Amino acid sequence: MSEATVDIHAIERELRQMWQEQANHPNAGGQAVIRALTLNLIVRVYDDEWAEKALAVAPVLTAQHPNRMVIVIDRPGDKTELQASVQALCTLVNAGRTQVCGEQVTISARGTPAGQLASLVLPLLLPDLPVVLWAPGPQPFTQPLVQRLYRLCDRVIVDSTTFADPVRELGALAAFEQTTNGSPAISDLGWTRLTPWRELTAQFFDTRPFLPHLHRIDEIVIEYAANTTINPVGALLFVGWLASCLKWIPLEDAVGIEGEIIRLYLRRPAVGVGPSAIRLVNVEIRPVQHSGEGFVRLSMRAVDNQQASFDVELIDDEGHACTRATIAGTAPIERTVSIEQPTLADLLASELRLLSRDRTFAAALQVAGGLARRCALH
């Protein structure tokens, strides 16, 4: 791995020189070096802590998605400072016989106008490759640099778990996603973190005797970990997912808030009593003290016709959970499962595998965003 601090205008020259050196001086271990780039990844971060996180995930992402990563550390400040560096990121494949390498350009800026930063980033993008922008942190789409770059991107990745005002920003994210209509596609790592819980929920109803109860759900309780911050966005997205899949519609007065507890009221088609009949779905979202992150407990109940309940609850800090399905008149069916806590690199790698708009997420986001906007009015 080679690294050099360069003048901004010499970045491309430094990259060419770096690869020339690789070609002229074979690796000491005898491995062949392959430059294989599949995408451009722009990372906009706003402080040193996030810069370190971006630098930490870069080698992992390169192993799965070799890319040219342009990290822009966009710090506020009265005095303009600008610096850049380049390096190759290589990973061994084929039992250690080949190194597949990507590129990393880091632009460290303070007090630099967004237009100037954008003019530095754009020439660094490789033609004919997808462009992905990862912009963690609060209010990503109000950031001047993001505003200048997002239209040139194929995908923009945000993280709702890093929002400063989660409920309001979720509403804004939904409005933005609807405006873009898939160009660029929008991803949220907060949604990606829900994947294990959505999979476990779906697995309940893969069993034929349980499937009818999916359309009879009347009550949902979601408890999520809230150690330092209150962020119900994941729960709102989960409800949005169920509602968009099952054709639930929020009531006109769909939201009630009591302290930190959010209550939602939706209507669903009643089963077996005519096409216009409806039933109420009550949802309660509440924070609980827990050492982990994300969901702690999910409970779904059907009281229409035959009573049934479906529960998932974390049972320790190691990511183990108990799932329980109970149908009136039968013994509960329980199992212990693992709910993996994916790393930041895992989450990003998962999103980089997507080639187009995630319509399931888009539909869930629109429902969740509407609920969030109503929550923000309270």
Automatic annotation (TrEMBL):
Q: What residue stretches are annotated with the Glucose-6-phosphate dehydrogenase assembly protein OpcA N-terminal domain?
A: 61-174
Q: Where in this chain does the record put each Glucose-6-phosphate dehydrogenase assembly protein OpcA C-terminal domain?
A: 184-365
What is the superkingdom listed in this entry's lineage?
Bacteria
Q: What is this protein called?
A: Glucose-6-P dehydrogenase subunit-like protein
Q: Which InterPro entries match?
A: G6PDH_assembly_OpcA, OpcA_G6PD_C, OpcA_G6PD_N
